[in-house]
Design brief:
The structure is a homotrimer of 310-residue chains.
Chain A (H helix, E strand, L loop, with lengths): L14 H19 L13 E6 L5 H12 L3 E5 L12 H11 L2 E6 L4 H6 L5 E7 L5 H15 L8 E6 L6 H10 L5 E6 L8 H4 L7 E3 L6 H4 L2 E4 L10 H12 L3 H5 L6 E3 L20 H20 L2
Parallel strand pairs in A: 1-2, 1-3, 3-4, 5-6, 5-8, 6-7, 8-9
């Protein structure tokens, strides 16, 4: 009985749908900035369920903020303080929240948990990250950031995107690539440690052949229009030593690297970050990972608006 | 100094008061469904304190939702993140929340905790479950479910209610029985493991003699107008084996049992559930435990309205 | 880039600013009580970030309540359920919340954490307690309590303030003393165990010499216009025995002590309390520690209003 408005994967998003999301995000952005009409109370009394089985700052707080700006309220459910602790199944928890709320954002450690959730409630379920599966709302805010920063040329020109980090497990990147493929000509460079490479099944789906590096390859910083960094989790290595060796050799973005990058490159990161970006890069105007969070509020307002509107 | 509007036990609820609650719950139900005026903003700026010393999904989230639909906001206090961790007494925590809020819902592991709480604040305290004591708002939503599903005949005819599960410790059932006794003619069947039987002091208060079974008794499924299931906590048995033996022999409601039940029986459960109801029963239209949650929001709106209105 | 409206320390508050805070707190108090216009919805859609690395009942709940009464909403961030658990720095967490909210209240175990936080966001940061540093909003509500209870004479007459308890580590008292020094003539009596004495660097800044006692000194209860009690943490002593010895000898405020105090003395406590005040004192009308919490909501509304207004 999945609600047609559920957002489980970016694979189901068409170019027209993407343009509609961007248009609405622009509308909320402009309402905030230009008209000084920052706080639209479009959905008073509406309730968003934030069901988070894993920790989150940005996804949870920005959906909460987006819902507040739309005039609604949020109810947070976390395992430690809910009936999950008494052994309640995900399905029953979602059925419950589906009755109390108008839409649900779910973060869960199991791949396909959002799909399962959407099958047991008639309210829209928004996938807020499901294990190493997908994270479609992050991907939408990422693509909105790319659109805002690079402009309309993304719809016509070739864009080179350098992805760096844990490309095997990053649900964010997987979801983003499905959206990038809606653009006419994206060229990918994948830079990751050997054991954290982009899965072949994703590479095989791309329109263009991708360039793959497991240590620094010449020219990749210089060529990139977008540098998308992700966190490498220390736990994935046998020792701190091994982790820092990998980071040191190839993957720390610092001022030196940035000096070789294009003047109009943008540096993105879904955050939280570890040691893969030097703090000195924060001051570089090409680092847009904090702006990315701001764009995220407007995109999440657009996503909620799409769901809550008739 | 207990506020006259505090709701500590269902023992103090008269038939007139019960009818008033039902009338208001109906009003909120109809406003949502019929008038499409779902979100009444009757109490803007009012604040509900949700003080939960034990985990909860339904009680907490549905009060939160009810308060939001009434236009107010909720403040959640839980032990791990509050001064309870610094050793603050329940009394001081309640005094504090009584100052910041307009009403308090308290869930606490001690019997009589709500009575104690109500004695130290002049705001209304709603008992959201006190140990193995009472759970009056669950009982009110249960009785509202029975009324909605069986109709006005509950006020005139004989109704047979089969209670199944942990009848010794279920605060929900104890509170519900006090309300059922307001109806003219309830006949009870109590089915529970030997060590989890309905306490004698409650049975002695009933207008009608009750039928007691410690394993399946013939005819009880066939006769029941209401089957009220509760969760049996594994922890109450010496081993998983013993738990499943008990469940297997007598207490799992499945399609086979349902095929012998009345065509108009209703199956209720306060949730969360364990293994005592087969998932296949969910599809049976006589299973109303999910509707029960929805009725719960309207009944809790009625309870809050009773407290917040002048 | 610290926002000029950030509130990090009471040292930066002038007498004019203090009077402005009191005036606004009075306005919110009167709106609630006299005009029966309790719930002002002055800042609809505005969002307050409550970032609490340490447990809190009063600071968190009263800011939440104050924001609700002003028409806004609050987003709570706590370490266990946020990216803090993934190792995110305080700076990145604050940058994030600065993007999602209109102002941030921060409680953190490190001294100077609020100053650090205010340096990385352009939103106002309110210090909600930073280690053994300061707690300016508690100090403001304390001074408002003193003003409300003692009246305008605080601006002209000599006031004797007896501080009792852990004067070394109490961030609340340190912040309060900076504010009390704005009044023309405060005389201090400091009563504390030897190892928990008021730091010399604070005593040296006072306009008047202070009287110091490490066990009960004659006349101090009789002379005081304000008795300000604080909790002594058991953990600071080698044994429960040592703790209770210290408490027993000198520092428990009971009916006997109160019988020797001025008829118009006020007894304050920031709460939560331990065993340093007998419960019997609660009934004494000179004990204002519960009224103090109520004044706190109005003062925190004033603080938020100061920040959110143009």
């Amino acid at each position: 009985m999945q609600n047609v408005k559920s957002l489980i994967t970016t694979r189901s998003i068409t170019i027209d749908k993407l343009k509609k999301y961007i248009k609405m995000a622009n509308f909320f952005y402009d309402s905030s900035k230009i008209n000084n009409n920052r706080y639209l109370q479009k959905y008073p009394g509406h309730i968003l369920g934030l069901v988070f089985y894993e920790p989150s700052t940005r996804t949870m707080a920005s959906f909460h903020a987006a819902m507040s700006r739309l005039g609604g309220t949020s109810i947070v459910i976390q395992p430690e303080t809910s009936s999950v602790k008494k052994g309640e199944t995900l399905e029953d928890t979602i059925r419950t929240m589906g009755i109390y709320t108008d839409a649900i954002v779910l973060r869960h450690f199991d791949k396909n948990s959002s799909e399962l959730a959407a099958s047991v409630t008639d309210k829209a379920v928004i996938n807020g990250g499901d294990g190493n599966g997908e994270h479609p709302t992050q991907a939408l805010l990422d693509i909105y950031t790319i659109y805002r920063e690079l402009g309309k040329r993304v719809f016509t020109e070739t864009i080179k995107v350098l992805f760096v980090g844990d490309l095997k497990n990053s649900r964010t990147i997987h979801s983003l690539i499905y959206l990038l493929e809606l653009f006419p000509n994206i060229q990918y460079i994948f830079l990751s440690p050997e054991k954290l490479q982009m899965p072949d099944e994703i590479k095989l789906e791309l329109k263009n052949p991708s360039r793959v590096c497991t240590s620094y390859c010449s020219g990749i910083i210089e060529e990139a229009d977008v540098i998308y960094m992700t966190r490498i989790q220390k736990e994935r290595f046998n020792s701190n030593f091994e982790y820092y060796e990998v980071l040191k050799d190839n993957f720390v973005l610092d001022e030196t690297n940035m000096s070789r990058a294009k003047p109009k490159v943008i540096v993105m990161h879904p955050l939280p970050r570890g040691d893969e970006i030097s703090k000195e890069v924060d001051k570089d105007s090409r680092a847009v990972y904090f702006k990315q969070m701001e764009y995220g509020v407007y995109m999440r307002m657009a996503i909620l608006d799409d769901i809550l509107s008739k």
